[in-house]
Amino acid sequence: MKKDFQLLPGEELHQLIEDKLYILQKQDQFRFGIDSVLLANWVKVRRRDKVVDLGTGSGIITLLLAFKQNPKEILGIEIQEQMAALAKRSVILNELEAQVDILHYDLRLIKEVKLPNCFSLAISNPPYFPKGSGAINPTDAKAIARHEIYCTIKDLVDAAAFLVGTGGKFAMIHRAERIPEIFQRLMEKRFEIKRMRLIQPRINQEPNLVLIESIKDGKPGLKIEPNLVIYDENGNYTDDVQKMYSYDGG
Question: What does the pLDDT look like over 176-222, one tens digit per residue?
Fold first, then answer.
């Protein structure tokens, strides 16, 4: 952690990995959940990869990937100015500026500022709920993070298809109920679904989330991995999840 780093009013410091990796959050903004941790630990990243995180929010995925998997470079794109600024401060806090950058921009307009096929991996924990479904959070920052106000599944896949070239990957986490729409959008943009894992809150509950990895212009063939269970019978994280909050230096 950067020495003499000063918190700004309203900022809170949280440990992602004990004594090794930190993130800043604010009470009045969207606070990361376990979903981003699951995705960042599931995706397979190569050292030579150039990664783009679509809708980076607080920057949690960029921080975890940089620290644990050390790709060549990572760009986090975030439409909310305050969230982007907070994510950038977390990058500075962890002294990862040489590897990670945060761009305050609308991913729907990404063609205006980025060249096509300039990343080898796109990743995203996007808003889950269609606009107009369920109650909208009165706090705008949280509403934008949870509902498709500025980013639909189509917008997300379109951006990934532009930024990732042939052979590049796109990994995401989303609601299991939206698998058909996700698959449709991916196939429309020549992404072949290659790997999938369903997530159950508890062993006796149905899956409610899904991890999906696709390859642009990839060959057919889908691997379905065993379901991941988050909580055990006592309400504690399962061993698989607990390992995600640690790092052995390997």
Answer: 999 999 999 999 999 999 999 999 999 999 999 999 999 999 999 99
Handedness of CA 95, 100, 106, 111 (dihedral sign): positive
DSSP-assigned letter for residue 133: S
Single-letter amino acid, residue 182 = I
| Contact indicator for 40, 65 with CB cutoff of 8 Å | yes
Pair type for strands 11-17 and 164-175 = unpaired
pLDDT at res. 165: 96
The alpha carbon of residue 242 and the mean position of all alpha carbons in its chain are separated, in whole angstroms, by 19
Amino acid at 82: Q
Of 119, 76, 118, nearest to 101 (Cα)? 76
pLDDT in tens, 172-182: 999 999 999 99
**Do residues 52 and 105 make contact, with C-beta atoms less than 8 angstroms apart?**
no
- Tell me if 74 sits within 8 A of 62, measured CB to CB: yes
Question: Band of the pLDDT at 147, cuts 50, 70, 90?
Answer: low
* C-alpha to C-alpha distance for 7 and 10, rounded to whole angstroms: 8
Nearest CA to 114 out of 68, 152, 159, 144 is that of: 159
Cβ atoms of 122 and 69 within 8 Å: the answer is no
Average pLDDT, the chain: 92
Q: Count CB-CB contacts under 10 A for residue 169.
A: 25
pLDDT digits (tens, 9 = 90+) for 85-102: 999 999 999 999 999 999
- The tokens describing 68, both together, are 């644990």
Report the predicted TM-score, pTM, of the whole model to 2 decimal places: 0.92
